[in-house]
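Exercise 7b. Backbone tokens:
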């Protein structure tokens, strides 16, 4: 699968395929309690208040990264996409539909703390 990073965003079907093919690191940018309750299977968690510390620890600048948050109204994922790009992460996309869109499609979810 060729991921088009110049689009700036990815839809749920493209994301599902990219996850299945292990082509992306998926990041939920929400509080840990919401991540632990339910998240896209395989996603990492970076809490909004811990972006500066955790992003460099969990992500490499050459990673293919997809960021999401709650739903279309959530502003955390576009913020993290912009923040990462400003710091030299080139291959970053926003999954705008977020957790709500993923669940509505009945795609795999998981729960629990980040490993």
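Sequence design result:
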């Amino acid at each position: 699968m060729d991921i088009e990073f110049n689009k700036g965003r990815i839809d749920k079907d493209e994301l599902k395929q990219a996850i299945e093919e292990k082509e992306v690191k998926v990041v939920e940018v929400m509080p840990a309690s919401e991540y632990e309750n339910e998240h896209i299977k395989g996603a990492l968690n970076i809490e909004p208040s811990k972006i500066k510390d955790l992003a460099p620890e969990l992500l490499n600048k050459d990673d293919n990264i997809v960021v999401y948050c709650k739903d279309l109204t959530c502003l955390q994922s576009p913020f993290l996409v912009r923040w990462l790009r400003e710091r030299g992460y080139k291959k970053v996309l926003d999954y705008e539909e977020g957790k709500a869109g993923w669940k509505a499609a009945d795609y795999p979810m998981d729960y629990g703390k980040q490993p």
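Instructor comment: Helices lie at 12-20, 32-37, 51-58, 76-86, 98-104. The chain has five helices and six strands.
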